[in-house]
Amino acid sequence: MRRWITGVLLAALLGSLPGTAPLAQDQTGSGTDALMTLRAEREAAEARDLERLNALLGDRQALEAALDEAQAAYAEAEAHHAALQAQQAEQAERQNELDARQREQGDDLSAVLSVLARHSGELRDGLAESWVTVGGTELPPRLDEAEVLERGHLETLGDALVALTAETGRVMRFEVSVADGSGDIATREVVRLGDLVAFSDGELLRRGAEEGVLSTVARTPREVSQSLAAFQAGESRTLALDPTRGQVIDALSQRPSLVERFHQGGVVGYVVVGLGLVGLLVALAQYTYLLRVSWTMRRQLRDLRQLRVDNPLGRVLQRFESLDDPVPEALEARLDEAVLAELPRFERGQALVKLLAAVAPLLGLLGTVLGMIVTFQAITVFGTGDPQLMAGGISQALVTTVLGLITAVPLLFAYTAMVARSRQLACVVEGQASEALAGRLERRGPRLGEERE
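User: That's the sequence. What structure does it adopt?
Assistant: Structure tokens below.
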């Protein structure tokens, strides 16, 4: 048998030797490159076959090894073929069984299977982002690939629906990986309230980009955060919930804070607030000075016999006491000069505060105009299709106006308080000076009469 196979192999190899196969005759005038290339490749293949045959004929051991290898490959192919035939028979038997069961069930059960497959797929798609699936609850399986309705399909789907329904009314605590706003992932305790909300440490959560990882929302409103933290700590039984499934909380979280609104005013808003702060500082410093002067003057009024130089009234009366002019008109003029020298200190800073109170609304109006210019530029370039493109200019227009008014109102109150306090002090000084002048003139009256006689 081995010799017969060897002879067959040698005959096959000899059949590929040059001269055993008919050669194509040259066609007169063809001479194309393609034909020459094909002929060269064929001659090279024949040369390789001849070289291989010579090597095998010269080395009988290599020939035997090649034969054994060919027989082993043949046996392996036969075994694989037998396995495929057995698998085919098994699949055919399974197909016949399924066909028989399909015929037994009829069209009604096929329709039931189709409905179950459709609803199970819709249920999985609808609950893919639901909170009930967080914490271990599994979704019902898909039945798209099921060919025959089985009892286990109905039981599995029913059990999954009951479990999901029960999860919608449970409050669970569990630990899961949570990513914060900076991207750091850490294991945190999470509280889930049915299908409504999930939170951790006073921060609302949402589904993360990675499977099994939650992430905190960009901003949780302060009132909601306090309520969630107290509920998680067991300090409160009330909880803030959003019946719109997050729309109201998203709107509240997007509401800018006071600092963010201030930054929306832009450069004009910064200038308005800066000038307002300067005006308030000047008013505060001057009003503090006036309060101190009021206190020292009240102390001076309690004892006019001992004059002090730490208050305007004491300085005016002390200077008046040092005057010894016999002419009443000159004495009165000297006294007015002493009083007028103290008045600028009372009115210091009032003009600046008044100016800033008047300029602040004008700067706010300037910011409004600039904001409207930005808005119209956005409309010109992008149109009116996206309101967010116009929100920046409108925000600047409104915020600068508000900042101008907010700055002007306190400055006006400060200016009014400064003016009222300074006028009160000036009236006290002028009144006491006039009283001192009248007293001296009354005392000098009889002597002036005697001198005239």
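The mean pLDDT is 75.
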